Structure formats: C-alpha cells, structure tokens
Amino acid sequence: MLALCVVPAIGWTQGQPDSLREPSQKYGLRAGLDLSKLLRTSLDDDYTGLELVGDYRLSEKLFVAAELGSENKTTLERIVDLPLYRYNSSGAYLKAGVNINNYKNWFGEQNLIYFGLRYALSTFKMEVYERYLYDSYRYYEPDAFVLFSDEKIEYNSLSASWIELVTGFKAEVLPNIYMGMSARIHFLLSYNQPDNFDSLWIPGFNKKTDNSRFGLGYNYSISYFLPLYKKPKKNLEEKTSF
After folding, report:
1. How far apart are CA 60 and CA 48, in angstroms?
2. I need a labelling partner for 149 at 20 to 30 A (CA). Which of 13, 52, 72, 236 fits?
3. Does pTM top 0.90 for this prediction?
4. Cα–Cα distance between 117 and 162 in angstroms, integer?
C-alpha cells in the first residue's frame, strides 16, 4: 500500500512544471557597446569615440562593472563668436567598479535598476593647432582676432583620474539582449596640466572647467548576456544586503 503511494508521488515530483520547482537565477557575463558614442561619431565631424561596456554578476544584487573606451575630439574655443584657439584631445580610458541592483525581478527576469561607483583612469595627448590674439591695430581685421600662430604644439603622456557616481537601468528587450541607459556625475581627482596650457577635454571625463572638478556623462548601451551558471534564488525572508 505504501509503495503504491510513494511511486506516484515520485513521478509527480519529476514531472512537475518549472514554476513549482525551486526558483533559480542566471549568473554570467553581459557585454556590449555604447550606442551614443557611435551615433555622435556619425553626426559630428570633430569627434570619434568607441566604448565597450560589461558587467558580471557576483550575487543577487551585486555586479562588478567596467567600461573601456577611446575618444578623439577637436574643439575651437571662442569668446562670443571670436575664435581663441583650436585644439585636439585624444586617448583611452578605463572605468571599473560595482553596480547594486535595486529592482526586484519577477521569476525569470534579469532586469536592473541600479546605482554604482566607478574609479576611472585616462591617458591622452593634446595638440594645439591655431592660436588667435587681439591686435590693437584694427584696420585690416576690425571684427576678429588675428591668427597669431598655426604651428602645432603637442603635449604627450598626459593622464587623469576621477571617480563617478552612476545610476541607470538595463532591460531585456529580446532573449539575452539588453538595452540600457546611465547618467554619471564625475569628480576629478588628479590630472596633468601642460605647460602654458590646460587639460581642457579629457577622454572619458569630457570637458573640464577652470573653477570646478565636477563633470557629467551618460551612455546608451546595447549588450548581450551570456549565462554561465545558475544559483537558487534566496527567499524574501532572508535578511541579506547583497
């Protein structure tokens, strides 16, 4: 009699649907591209940029994250409509840190609404192409600064470091394909200042102003999630931070 009860029970357990089994979550690597830099490259003749983005899940909420990229930008600085100088800044950067997911996913979801922190390093060079000066003799150039020199001056082996506060989201739009967006506040920690000039635009950091170490940034990303293994999902009653 006992055997007749046990055998059907075993068969029911093996054949029960996934929704009744112990819930599990996927862990793996997510990697992709920043679409905003590709779009800007196609629209702005004075800019070229590429950024790779990625994250790896460590626990239910904690992810290690990184961005690796390069940028090249030419800028003509002006006072109102009068040119002052033209310069180019180009180099590479690396950002690494963590994201903490605050979104409670339904079973099977892998979406993120997160905040995070990055430490960033950039190595770059600057080239000054044109410099304009105000000439008190205005007979020939009454409404413009005159070109003082078009000799190229190079400043090599420049570097900068900063931290970033990050907030953003990543949502699965197709199986394992994610679209994401993030906003960032930068705080400059250190940088090289060239002789008789300044590090006005730092790859990865963007424009630096004289009176502030703060900056802003953003990205729009598309990425692919490669699941490597699964872990059981923790019960809601478990009191854990991550």
Report:
1. 37
2. 72
3. no
4. 11
The answer to whether the CB of 49 falls within 8 A of the CB of 42 is no
- C-beta neighbour count of 23 within 10 angstroms: 14
Per the CB < 8 A criterion, the answer to whether 182 and 218 are in contact is yes
Instruction: Sort 165 into a burial class: Cβ within 10 Å, 0-12 / 13-18 / 19+.
Output: middle
- Helix or strand run (H / E) with residue 12: helix 2-15
Please name the residue that has the structure tokens 């690396």. Answer: 94
All domains in the chain, ordered by first residue: 24-229 (2.40.160.20)
Confidence of residue 134 (pLDDT cuts 50, 70, 90): low
Closest CA to 54 of 228, 236, 178, 194: 178
Q: What is the DSSP string of 37-71?
A: HHHHHHH-TTEEEEEEEEEEE-SSSEEEEEEEEEE
Q: pLDDT confidence of 180, banded at 50, 70, 90?
A: very high
